[in-house]
Every structure is written in structure tokens, then in C-alpha cells.
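Blackboard transcription, Thursday session:
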Amino acid sequence: MSVVFSRPRFRLEPYVEFAKVAMAKEATYRFDVFTNIASVLVRVYILRTVWVALYAHNAAPSELPLHAVITYSTIAMLMSLVMDIDQTRILRDSLHDGSIVLDFTKPMRVPLYFIANGTGEVLFHAVLMIPALALALFFVHIDVPSFGTLAVFLVSFLLGYSVGFCINFILNCTAFWTLEITAVQFIVTWITDLVGGELVPLVLFPAALQNVLVVLPFAAMFSTPLLIYVGHIPPAQYAGALGLQAFWLIALGAVSVVMWRLGARRLVSQGG
Amino acid sequence: MKRLKAMARAYREYWRINVLTTLEYRENFLMWFAFTIVYHGTALGALWVVLTAFPSMNGWTFRDMAFLYGLWMLAHAVNNTFFSEIGNIPDHVHEGEFDRLLVRPLDTLFQLIATPGQTFPDELILAVSYFAAATWYSGVHVGVLFLIFVPLIALGGALIDLGINLIVGTLAFWFVRVDALQWIVAQLEQEFTRYPVSIYSRSVRLLLTFAFPFAFMNYYPAAFFLNKPENALALPPAVGLLTPLIGLAFVSVAYAFWRFGLNRYQGVGH
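(Written on the board underneath:)
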């Protein structure tokens, strides 16, 4: 396996095809699609009921009025449709069954193949957000911000998604060294949901805790785009908020590259 | 009688294998134990944050909710410890392993429940410890009634859990792939048991009481022990003690459905 291939000229088309195949694969499980959307609806109903009950008997916290918190939680749930996907699972799977060796012999850049596959899967679920959102509107009223804010939100969401992608890739890369990481992935997902502000907006956390959590990469995944959406982060702070997200993306992107290189080398030195 | 003896022997053997497997894969066990702790930790963390920002929800404080959560955790842990294999019915069906169980001399459901894996009572130990702490924290009076009924309620709650999983699992006889449904039912159970049922609309309260009796896993018993005045359906507080009976009734319905499915099962063509 230590043969050095002369790299063919890079072409994007094969990776687009990989993504399409992954998308088609996801679409075959129609029953899953249906139950997924149904589950979003029930959870939107629950979140509305819970927040209404909380705001009904207490003085509303000044940070977020009821309509903003319902908007926040609904958008967070829709975001989780794509954020909670184990995008690079195929890396772990092909390490488990050894097929990664074959992947290396193919004329392609292996990490790009994994990324394309994950992206296809995610795009399919991103499309599902549209019917889920449309149906959710029967249960909740969602604030729609100005076009400018929406655009910044989308940029921030993309940055947050990419940070999440890197964390997922790094976790799956650990499969080069240790094979059983399912539990660790669940643990990271739950911790992200809590300290990233998906379950409860970070602005409702006690102040001391908040100051720590906002600078972590988990906040970059959920909290930052969501707080931009509901207008809690004003335009004057956009640069700082997006800058911090970009910082985490670069840092974790660098870690991903290093992990991949070390992992791939280890694979080669073991003889495939 | 002979049959019961055979079952008891098989069941003992089942636990022996479980413990040996767990000891063999110690790192794996520790990782899943951490998983269990983080799962409950993040759920309670979210409750704590919310109820720090808002002092109460429909008259329930964090102390009350900690107890509510504890009751659910106890029932859920009993189910996960003794009946976790029910969740694998769909796998057994589409791998074709299920057919093997059908030709063996012991009851099919019993064989399923006693399929060795890596089950270990770690979650149950965690749940009992948490529940003891939550009981103290919430200031619930621990009397004779409490000591007699809490284990029965945990068992009844576990039967409700088992019943719902058995119903979903049985659907695999017709639909084969029910993974998403299983996942969603688990998630809904977890969400609907987290907050007092009284916050939901009347129709949902009726559903959670009579159709999918999750409210009996923790809401009604917790309302009874915490002396909460308002009840979701203005039922007398003592309904909280009916959980064991509700559990038995619900699991009987689920079992009947399972028998019905089993009689129609034709295999997936292996």
C-alpha cells in the first residue's frame, strides 16, 4: 500500500456524482422520511407548550420575549435536522470493514469522497426542512427577520454547519486508532445540544456559565446563527460573531487535516 | 413446572453470560456507562437551566421536576435492564434469526428477552442512586406507602415502556424496517415524561393517560407523592398509585398484539 500514485488532475464531477448517489440512497427510506417529519411536528408542539407554560406564570426574562424564544427553538429544531447527522460515518464504516483499503486504490482523493458522500446525505435532509417548516407553521408563529439579517443568518449557519462537520470528521478519524466510538459520538452530540444552545438559548444560562460557553465551538454551531436570526446579536456585533465562528472553523479544519494525515499514515504503516 | 424450571435455568445462564461479556469488554462498558451518565446529565442540565431562568412551570419547581425525572429514570432503567432486547425485534426479523427462535421449545418472547448481550445493571444502579438523591432533594416524605409503592410504580412504569416497545417491535412483522419509528417513540416518551403533563392541551393529556399511558410512568405518581393540587384531568390524586395495574393492563394489550403479529408472521424470505 505504500505505492505512491501520480495524482490525476483534479476533477469535481466524480464528487458531485458521489453526493448524488448518497442523496438517492437516503431518499429510498420513505417511511423514515415520513416519521422524521411527523416527529419534528410533535416536538414543535411540545416546545411551544413548554415555553408558553414557562412564560405564563413567571416574569419574562428581558433577553428574549416569548415569540422570540419559540422562533429560536423551532429554527433550532429544523437546523438539527442537518446538524445532528453523522456526516462522515462512512469513514468509520469503511475502517471497520476494511474497505478503506480499496478506497485508497481508487483514483480519487479519499477525504473528498467521504465529504461528498456526507454532503449528499445532508442535502437530502436539508430539503426535508422545507415541508417540516411549512407544517410547523400550523402549530407556531415564527418571526421572519429582515432580508439582510436572514442573509447573515445563512452565512452564520453555513459556518456553524462546517464547524460541526469538522468535529464529526475528527471524531470519525479517531476510528483509525480505536474502533468503537458510537458512544463517544452520542456523548458529543448531547453535550453540543446543551452547551451549544440548541435545547435552551445560552442567554438564559446563568451569566458566569454563559461567558464561558459563548466562546466554545459548540456555541458557534447553534447559538451564534440562532441569536443572529432572532436579533439578539445586533448588526454591530456581526463581525465579531462571524469572526469567532471562522476562527473555530479554521482551527478545527486544521485539526481535521492533521488527524486525517496521521490516521492515513498509520493505515499504510500497518500494511492496509 | 418443569417448563418454569427450564426457563429459570436459561434466565440465570443469560445473566451469567451478560456479566462475563461485560467483564470481557471493560473499556466498552465504561464508555457506555459514561454515555448513560451524560444522557441523563444533559437532560437534567437543561431542566436546571430553564428552571433557574424561570422559577416554576405550572407550579412545579426544579426540585419537583428532579423527582419527576427520577421516577421516569427508575422505570426506564428497569425496562432497559430487563427488557432491552425487545428493541432488537426488527433486527431479528430482517436478519432472519427470528425463525430460529420459533422452532425452539420455550416461549418466543421469553427467548427474546433472554438473548444475551452486554446488559449490565449499571443504569439501574445509577437510577436508584439518583432517585434516592432526588427524593431527598425534593423533600418528599418517605413513609411506608412510599417504600411499598415506589418499587411497584417503577415496575409498572417499566411494563408501560415494555408494552410500547413490544407494540412497535411487533410492527416489524409487517413493515420490517421500523428503526425511525422506534427512535421517535423513544424520543417522544422522553419528551412527554420530562414536564408535568398538565401543561399540555386536554386532548394530549387524555392521550397520555389512556392511549399511551406515559403519564402513569411518572406524572401521576409524582403528583401524588409531591402533594400537587392540580391534576391534569382533575382525577383524584390516588390514581398515582394505579401505575402497577395500568402497566399490567397495557403490557397485556401489547402481548395480545404480539401474539396476533406472531401468528401472521411469514418470514422475510430467507
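Lecturer's comment: Chain A touches chain B at residues 29, 31-32, 35-36, 38-39, 42-43, 46, 49-50, 52-58, 61, 180, 183-184, 186-187, 190-191, 193-194, 199-200, 204-206 (CB under 8 Å).
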